[in-house]
Amino acid sequence: MNSLDWAVLIGYFGVMVAIGIWSHKRVDNVSDFFTAGGKMPWWLSGISHHMSGYSAVMFTGYAGIAYQYGVTSFVTWSLPIAIGIGIGAQLFAPRLNRLRSRLHVASPLEYLKNRYNVPTQQALAWSGLLLKIVDVGAKWAAIATLLSVFTGISLTQGIFITGTITAIYCTVGGLWADALTELGQFIIQLFAGIAMLVIVLKELGGFSALWTVWDKLPEGHAEPTAGPYTVTFLLAYLFIKTFEYNGGMWNQAQRYMATDSARSATRSARLSAVLWLVWPVVLFFPMWAAPLLVEAQKPDASDSYALMTEQLLPHGLLGLVVVGFFSHTMAMCSSDANAIAAVFTRDIAPVLSKSARSWNNRSGLLAARVSTLAFLALSMALATQINSPTFKDIISVVIKWVAGLMGPIAIPFMLGMLRRFRKSGPTAALVSWAAGLLAFYFTNYNFDGSVKTSVALQYQVALPLAISLVLYIVVGFIRPEDTPERDAIIETINTDGEGPAGTAAAAVPSQPAGADGPVVPKGVKD
C-alpha cells in the first residue's frame, strides 16, 4: 500500500466515525439504541441483515476453501444461507418483529423470561455471550491477518486499530449507526467487488473467461461438493444456517425487530436472501480463479485473495478493496456488539443487580454503551489467541465452534416462538441446551481435552444441533409445560392486527429480566 491507499483507508475510517456521531442524535433511549425504535426502513434492514453476516473470514478462510476446492465454497456456504433466510422470511422474521412491536422488548432474549423462566433465559444468555466473544475474536483475527499482508503491521496492532474504530461508531450511535455504516460498506464493497471481478476477467482473457476458465483450473474445481465439504455437510449447514441467520445468533434478529411491522421484516429477509444468492458469486469468482494467478503461501491458502489483490490492483483501487475487507468485518462485529449489549443490559444485568431493574433512560443508555465497549475489548483480547492450539485457526473457529455451538442456544429461542412447540417448556429448553453443549464437546474433544481427529466435520457441526432439536421436541412431548401465560406469549407473537391479542400486547410495559411480575399479555386464550 502507498499513500493513496492509506488515504482511502483513513478516509473510510473517518466516514464511519462521522456516521456514528450523526446517529447519536437519533438515540434517545434503550429502544433506539438496540432496535432503532422500530423505525428502520425494510430495505435498510435487509441490506444491514445481509452485511452483518459477512466478515474478513470471507476473504481469508473461505478464500482458502475457494482456492483449494472451487465452487464448493459457494454451494456449501452462501447458497444454504440464502435458502435458510428465504425459509425464515416467512417462519421467523415476522415473529421476531412482534417481540418488539407487541411485547415491547429491546433484547431478542427478553421474552424468554416469561416463555420459559429466568434460569433458562440466563443459561442461553451467558452461553451465547461467551460464544460470541469467540466468534467476534475470530473476525478480528481475520481482518488483522489481511492487514498484516498489506501493511506489515502485527496481528495485535491490526486488531487494536479495527476494534477501536468500530467501538467508536457503534458505541455512540447504536443500531442506527450499525445499519447506516453497513449501507455505506455495502456500496463500497459493491464497487470493490465488481472492480476485482473486471480486473481478474481481463487478466484471464476477457468476459468469456466466466465459462472458459474451468478447463484450466485444478480438477474438481467446478464440483459442487469436495473434500470435507460433502453433501452431508451441505445439508447440515443448511439446517444450521436456517437457525443462525434468522436470529439464532441475535444480531440478525435485531434487524427484523427494528422494522416497523411484521410485513416489513418479511420483506427485509427476502431482500437479504436475494443478496446472499447473487452477490457472493461476484466475490467468489476471483477466488475460484486464483490458482491461475497466484501461488498461496499458507497451507490453507487463506492468504490467496490478499496476494491476488496486491498483484493485480493499482494503488487507490487496492485501498478500496482493503476498505471492503474492513467493511465486512466491522459490519458483523459492530452488529454482534450491539446484540450482546442488548442481552447483557436487558437480560443479564437485572438478574445480577437490583438497581439495574430500575434504570432510567440515561442509566440504561450508559450501561448499553459500557457493555458494548466491554464486549469489544474482550473479543479483541481473545483474537490475539485465535491461532492457539485450543482454537486451531480462524476457519475452524467460524465453522466448527460457531456452527456447532449455535444450535443448542438457538433451538429454545427460535422454536419457542412457534405454536407447534408450545408444550416445550423450561425442562425441554434446558435439557436440549445442556445435551447439545455436551454433544459438541464429545464430538470435538477427548476426555483429556485434546482435539479429536476421527470425527468428520459434518458430524462435528451437525450433531449438537440435531441432538438439541430432538430433545427439545421429545422432552416437550413427554413432559408438557404449557400454561395459559406461556400460551398467551406464543399467541401474541403469532398474530397480527387488532383483537384481544393485539389489545393486550399493546398494553404490556417493557420489563427487563429479573423485574417483578411476568411480562405477558393478560386475557389472551389459546
Automatic annotation (TrEMBL):
Coiled coil: none annotated. GO terms for cellular component: plasma membrane. InterPro entries: Na/Glc_symporter_sf, Na/solute_symporter, Sodium:Solute_Symporter_SSF. It comes from the Bacteria. Belongs to the sodium:solute symporter (SSF) (TC 2.A.21) family. It is a multi-pass membrane protein. Residues 501-515 have a biased composition (Low complexity). GO terms for molecular function: symporter activity. Keywords: Cell membrane, Ion transport, Membrane, Sodium, Sodium transport, Transmembrane, Transmembrane helix, Transport. Pfam families: SSF. It is found in: Cell membrane. GO terms for biological process: sodium ion transport. The chain crosses the membrane at residues 6-22, 42-65, 71-93, 158-177, 183-201, 273-294, 366-386, 398-418, 430-447, 459-478. It comes from Streptomyces nitrosporeus. Residues 496-526 are annotated as: Disordered. This is Na+:solute symporter.
